[in-house]
Amino acid sequence: xxxxxxxxxxxxxxxxxxxxxxxxxxxxxxxxxxxxxxxxxxxxxxxxxxxxxxxxxxxxxxxxxxxxxxxxxxxxxxxxxxxxxxxxxxxxxxxxxxxxxxxxxxxxxxxxxxxxxxxxxxxxxxxxxxxxxxxxxxxxxxxxxxxxxxxxxxxxxxxxxxxxxxxxxxxxxxxxxxxxxxxxxxxxxxxxxxx
Amino acid sequence: xxxxxxxxxxxxxxxxxxxxxxxxxxxxxxxxxxxxxxxxxxxxxxxxxxxxxxxxxxxxxxxxxxxxxxxxxxxxxxxxxxxxxxxxxxxxxxxxxxxxxxxxxxxxxxxxxxxxxxxxxxxxxxxxxxxxxxxxxxxxxxxxxxxxxxxxxxxxxxxxxxxxxxxxxxxxxxxxxxxxxxxxxxxxxxxxxxxxxxxxxxxxxxxxxxxxxxxxxxxxxxxxxxxxxxxxxxxxxxxxxxxxxxxxxxxxxxxxxxxxxxxxxxxxxxxxxxxxxxxxxxxxxxxxxxxxxxxxxxxxxxxxxxxxxxxxxxxxxxxxxxxxxxxxxxxxxxxxxxxxxxxxxxxxxxxxxxxxxxxxxxxxxxxxxxxxxxxxxxxxxxxxxxxxxxxxxxxxxxxxxxxxxxxxxxxxxxxxxxxxxxxxxxxxxxxxxxxxxxxxxxxxxxxxxxxxxxxxxxxxxxxxxxxxxxxxxxxxxxxxxxxxxxxxxxxxxxxxxxxxxxxxxxxxxxxxxxxxxxxxxxxxxxxxx
Lengths: 195, 529
What we know:
The structure holds two protein chains of two kinds. Chain A has helices at about 15-30, 75-80, 110-115, 125-135, 140-150, 155-165, 170-195; strands spanning about 1-10, 30-35, 45-55, 70-75, 85-95, 120-125. The longest helix of chain A is centred in the C-terminal third of the chain and has 23 residues, at about 170-195. In chain A, β4, α2 and β5 (about 85-95) form a beta-alpha-beta unit. Chain A has seven helices and six strands, in the order βαβββαβαβαααα. Chain A has a six-stranded mixed beta sheet with strand order 2-3-1-4-5-6. Chain A has one domain: Pyruvate-ferredoxin Oxidoreductase, domain 3 (3-Layer(aba) Sandwich). By secondary structure, chain A is of the alpha/beta class. Chain B folds into three domains: about 5-225, Thiamin diphosphate (ThDP)-binding fold, Pyr/PP domains (Rossmann fold, 3-Layer(aba) Sandwich); about 230-330, 3-Layer(aba) Sandwich (Rossmann fold); about 360-529, 3-Layer(aba) Sandwich (Rossmann fold), CATH 3.40.50. Helix content of chain B is about 40%, strand content about 15%. Chain B has 19 helices and 18 strands. Chain B has helices at about 10-20, 35-40, 45-50, 60-70, 80-100, 125-130, 140-155, 165-170, 200-225, 245-255, 275-280, 295-300, 325-330, 360-370, 405-415, 425-445, 470-480, 495-510, 520-529, and strands at about 5-10, 20-25, 75-80, 105-110, 135, 160-165, 170-175, 230, 240-245, 265, 270, 285-290, 310, 380, 420-425, 450-455, 485-490, 515. In chain B, the strands form four sheets. In chain B, strands 2-3-4-6-5-11 form a six-stranded mixed beta sheet, sandwiched between helices. In chain B, α15 (about 405-415) links the parallel β14 (about 380) and β15. The two termini of chain B are about 40 Å apart. At the A-B interface, α1, β2, α2 and α3 of A face β1, β7, α10 and α13 of B.
């Protein structure tokens, strides 16, 4: 088993929480993990990514080679496209559709959507809307993780345990909100897959 | 008790140090080293054991405090980013001369590719020219193990040990198996045979320097037999590969079934000459893969022609600048490129920005308004979030060089005749290295306007306490700035007129003025809610 994952978004959106949950689930599953994060200056509203590698064998590099990523999980649609050169030709893109516009030259949304939809393996999802419906507006990142869950090679139950482990010290209310968001994302992805 | 934990490289170092019997960590925050000290500060285990973990004012004070703890026989860790080593350099280089008593480990976190820094300097140079043995772990597990090893080495050889990591190691997580927990050292002092070298008067220093050079030869012997330096033989001797620290992982990423060429993995310096010579004698050429600057490659090359070709960053097989990755190492190995998707045509860069609602924004907005009325205003800025004032929409600053340089460059420019000559510096950067420059200004009553944009924290590194919080006005007055020209304001849009008037008046005042806009960092404020 091996999954090379790039998590992407804009500083402050919460990609590290997604990475922490997957990492915890993989650790509980006895898998090897390497997870490279971005701290420091770029966290201030700039583009951020995390390379997350999980495998049943030892992992050499902290960084994923270009053309080798199995899944790009993005909280922002343009940021998903930034990592195309890292995506394996057989890889999946799971992305939020709501743009985060904090630059004056943000590209035309139609062009972003066209490029995303031209990819052979893509799941697009409005995570903010689904999070709101599920009563978990502040856990939009867990909706995205739920949508990505079928592509991660880790059982959903183990990811849910990861959510409990990571958010546990913040109390039951926070855990349940994140679990509800995760399940809503998962339901959505199942519906898309059934189509 | 052995445990398996998922840790950042920084956290692995912190935990390794705690388990090695650490008594104190000393540091000033700096990406990518901050999380080491933060981990120790947050650790229940460290609190129970009374491990010192308060932040220091700057890297030099941190280094000296750690040296003092080592003198008293206890184990001390001092952490800094690579440019912090420049600040600590006087103490660091001379700590090679004094040597250590209790284990002393200096952690320098380099930032190749400059993710969050102003240059790409390689701390291994500092180790070499200070005759201080240097460890460079290649994985989080090695980071944990080597920090423990480094404390033992330091006490065995009575010398500080430098551990050099890079951003990728610092900020990457992997599982780490932890080991036994060692007790802290008891208070003790250097043996009478070694007390002279702690008093670096010329006569003592000359004796110590000869001894240090002899010791350095022993450190090299240690590197030759270190379990962290491995000679891994293989059949294809057309090239022999030297892989330093993390570079070893990028090499092995490209050879999942094992490298067909002999490899010398290096994680401990001085460079183990005998192992390097063995590789050069057995192989037709040498490829050096090292992150940061070509430290090892230059040592191999010198000026005279080498008996075998040496390839690396200097010969162009690897890029001269920027961090290593699996792809540029793959190209240097001559392996076929992977099939890639084309880059997107619509993606544009997304540079970092000052947060919405940040007080620095209000300062720059009003400063720009005032300075618009002068012909040749110059603004000298500093290291911190407010450096982002160079970017759109502010374009408010002309220089950023090093910690504290805003105050002193503004002074030099004012000496040259620049007016208005304005410095913009943060509160933490001011107490790190701005105060002495302000004293220079006061001593000559230089015509400068110094804005200490006070967000009550060390913001860029994530909100650590700032040394002078609540006392900046007193510090400035204490240094001799006239009380009437030390003024504070709350940087909010509603106070625009007040701030405008204040900045204008102080620029037009012929002498030293300090304006302190004070408003809490909105990130630390958010966390409290």
